[in-house]
What does this fold into?
Amino acid sequence: MQPVMTVAEVEAFLRAEFPQVYLDGPLTQVEEIAPGLAALRFTASGRHLRPGGTVSGPAMMALADLAAYVVILAHIGPVALAVTTNLNINFLRKPAPGDLIATCRILKLGQRLAVVDCAICGDGEGEMAAHATATYSIPPRRQG
It folds into this structure.
């Protein structure tokens, strides 16, 4: 399955549709889009840390959700109303403070649903900090 949007096109779409996310500067950057895959970098700041000096679970969940959205958009085109219907995450180990990389792969891309697998690792770390699966509902395309 080939992507239909480039990194630059996805980034521009996100900035246009979700300008509030960029008010304090970007926290994420789309690193890669390839057939069936997208990778995002998340720059965790102090507000994303929890006691114990690690990136918080809610921050990793938000990263998984956004990365899933990006890989789906990259393959279906700019559909703003594709929405999360399910997100499941398992926290596997405590990531060090710093950048996280989420790599998502499309498991199934249908007309109405997409299912994605997402691995979250600390930048430069080989082991997963979290593993997520997400299901997105894709709105019907308008005829005409």
The longest helix spans residues 57-76. The mean pLDDT is 91.
